[in-house]
């Protein structure tokens, strides 16, 4: 069974472009993880500081294991760009 994880990121005021760029550097790292079918960044047309990271996986366990593919310094780059903590949910396809 494939699952989709949708992560919502709210950029700090005016930081939407920088957050998008930072997320785009993470997606290729996730795509190399076992079980990743796809990973992409999308941006809200009406609220450009809201971005989604849409991930498709073979399982929730594979998605959880993918965190080891993201170096801590990449995560540290995201933190000052965020208005608050990201939110994420799993969905069944």
Description:
With 93 residues, the chain is an alpha+beta fold. It has one domain (3-82, 87-91): Alpha-Beta Plaits (2-Layer Sandwich). It is 31% helix and 32% strand. The chain has three helices and four strands; from the N terminus they run βαββααβ. It has helices at 16-31, 60-65, 72-78, and strands at residues 3-10, 36-43, 50-57, 87-92. Strands 2-3-1-4 form a four-stranded antiparallel sheet. It is globular. The N and C termini lie close together (7 Å). The mean pLDDT is 95.
Question: Could you outline the blueprint of secondary structure elements for this entry?
Answer:
Layout: E1 3-10, H1 16-31, E2 36-43, E3 50-57, H2 60-65, H3 72-78, E4 87-92
